[in-house]
């Protein structure tokens, strides 16, 4: 992982930086190569008799100088005319060593003459700035040489492309290559940005399934931006779908008591009609009214819970913090929980409450713990265990951790992460004992998060479900 961070291809800056220098290197090498190739023109043709004879005279002069004991390099210089108009090149047939009698800057591409040392008869060889006739064989100190005799060409005599024109060609190639490199670089940056723009527009138009595909392999800022966009779109889609599901569930939960209200009202109307003809016992009427009141209370409670979740999940939520002792804050909740457990033939086991104080919204904390305990008692076989701890992690403030576990049937592992969704009920939770609307744990989650805490669920060591809340203690 550490080496991945050092990889320059994992950042847009590194990519552009390396791309620039790579493109510059390729352009320079290409321009240099094409300039050299275009300027190193070699033309071969048959030599005229006069040219061959002139070259032979120079070679014979060189041979006489060598026979007199002259040094090879000195004899090369003396074999030419005094004005320096005759250029002589000698190539050793054995080791291909090249010697010449003129300044090195004029040498140019004379190495091309090595390709003609095996010619059977002299030919005319025109280089970019010189013209030679050869080869002429000569032997000195048991070494065989091939001699080429030439002269500098006038500007109008030079064939092929001049250096200036070759430089222009190289510059043109550099411009073309730089254009291609810039186009590729810009395309690699604008194409994913264009895809992001189109996906954003589709998302804004209501297509919540819009995602950016094909950028998974990119590890630079653009790839990270695409991942963040896909994550944002997924969360947005999840929120919208949850809101739709919430509305559907609220409608379903309200429809049942409303149906009973309509039925009870119809029965009362029938009873009022019958009362005109005969007397009906007031007891039946009281039962119907009690049922109506019960359903009204249920709907009122449901609406209140939905409003509570909406307020806690609002962007600008306000909580009323005050300093509370944990013992004073939690003892009442646990006492009520023990009473409710005994009434249902169950038991709530609570360890000792730590003696310290912190900043809490008492109503929210009490509501959260109360809902979790009530949920545990609803599905427990016999016992609900509550463990209260104050934990301190390195370089962090202390936190209040409360773990509430039941010994019920539990739920499937893949459903545990859904227990905090509004109106969610697991397969093992659909029973006559579960008469709640499925909002208790959702309210608890919102209350805990309002305190910048965390809430999670896992399999209980006692067989059911464990809900763990952890809230930072601000003194």
UniProtKB/TrEMBL annotation:
Main location class: membrane
Cellular localization per UniProt: Cell membrane
Record key words, sorted: ATP-binding, Cell membrane, Kinase, Membrane, Nucleotide-binding, Phosphoprotein, Transferase, Transmembrane, Transmembrane helix, Two-component regulatory system
Coiled-coil region(s): none
Residue ranges annotated for the HAMP domain, each copy included: 187-241
Reaction equations catalysed: ATP + protein L-histidine = ADP + protein N-phospho-L-histidine
Membrane topology: Multi-pass membrane protein
Signal peptide: none
Enzyme Commission (EC) number: 2.7.13.3
CDD domains, sorted: HAMP (cd06225), HisKA (cd00082)
Domain Histidine kinase: start-end pairs: 249-475
GO MF term list: ATP binding; phosphorelay sensor kinase activity
Enzyme class, broadest EC rank: transferase
Gene Ontology CC entries for this record: plasma membrane
InterPro entries, per the entry: HAMP_dom (IPR003660), HATPase_C_sf (IPR036890), HATPase_dom (IPR003594), His_kinase_dom (IPR005467), HisK_dim/P_dom (IPR003661), HisK_dim/P_sf (IPR036097), HssS/ArlS-like (IPR050398), Sig_transdc_His_kin-like_C (IPR004358)
PANTHER family: SENSOR HISTIDINE KINASE CPXA
Name used for this protein in its record: histidine kinase
Organism: Brumicola blandensis
């Amino acid at each position: 992982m550490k080496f991945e961070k050092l990889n320059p291809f994992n950042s847009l800056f590194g990519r552009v930086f390396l791309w620039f220098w790579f493109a510059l290197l390729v352009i320079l090498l290409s321009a240099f190569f094409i300039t050299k190739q275009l300027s190193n023109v070699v033309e071969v043709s048959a030599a005229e008799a006069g040219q061959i004879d002139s070259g032979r005279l120079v070679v014979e002069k060189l041979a006489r100088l060598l026979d007199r004991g002259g040094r090879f390099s000195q004899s090369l210089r003396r074999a030419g005319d005094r004005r320096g108009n005759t250029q002589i090149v000698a190539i050793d047939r054995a080791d291909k060593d090249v010697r010449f009698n003129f300044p090195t800057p004029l040498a140019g591409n004379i190495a091309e003459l090595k390709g003609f040392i095996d010619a059977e008869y002299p030919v005319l060889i025109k280089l970019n700035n010189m013209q030679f006739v050869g080869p002429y064989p000569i032997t000195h100190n048991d070494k065989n040489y091939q001699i080429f005799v030439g002269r500098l060409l006038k500007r109008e005599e030079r064939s092929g492309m001049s250096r200036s024109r070759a430089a222009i060609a190289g510059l043109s190639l550099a411009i073309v290559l730089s254009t291609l490199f810039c186009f590729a670089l810009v395309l690699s940056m604008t194409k994913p940005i264009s895809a992001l723009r189109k996906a954003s527009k589709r998302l804004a138009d209501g297509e919540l399934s819009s995602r950016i595909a094909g950028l998974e392999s990119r590890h630079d800022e653009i790839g990270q931006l695409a991942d963040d966009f896909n994550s944002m779109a997924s969360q947005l889609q999840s929120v919208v779908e949850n809101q739709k599901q919430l509305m559907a569930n609220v409608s379903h939960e309200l429809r049942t008591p409303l149906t009973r209200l309509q039925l009870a009202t119809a029965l009362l109307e029938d009873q009022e009609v019958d009362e005109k003809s005969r007397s009906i016992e007031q007891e039946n009427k009281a039962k119907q009214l009690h049922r109506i009141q019960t359903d009204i209370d249920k709907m009122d409670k449901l609406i209140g819970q939905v409003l509570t979740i909406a307020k806690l999940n609002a962007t600008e939520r306000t909580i009323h913090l005050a300093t509370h002792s944990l013992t004073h804050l939690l003892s009442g909740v646990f006492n009520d929980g023990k009473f409710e457990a005994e009434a249902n033939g169950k038991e709530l086991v609570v360890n000792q409450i730590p003696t310290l104080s912190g900043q809490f919204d008492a109503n929210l904390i009490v509501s959260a713990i109360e809902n979790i305990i009530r949920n545990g008692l609803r599905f427990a076989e016999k016992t609900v265990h509550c463990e209260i701890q104050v934990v301190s992690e390195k370089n962090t403030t202390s936190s209040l951790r409360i773990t509430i576990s039941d010994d019920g049937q539990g739920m499937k592992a893949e459903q545990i992460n859904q227990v905090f969704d509004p109106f969610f009920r697991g397969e093992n939770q659909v029973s006559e004992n579960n008469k709640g609307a499925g909002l208790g744990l959702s309210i608890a989650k919102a209350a805990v998060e309002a305190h910048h805490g965390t809430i999670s669920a896992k399999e209980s060591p006692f067989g059911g479900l464990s809900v763990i809340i952890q809230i930072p203690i601000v003194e």
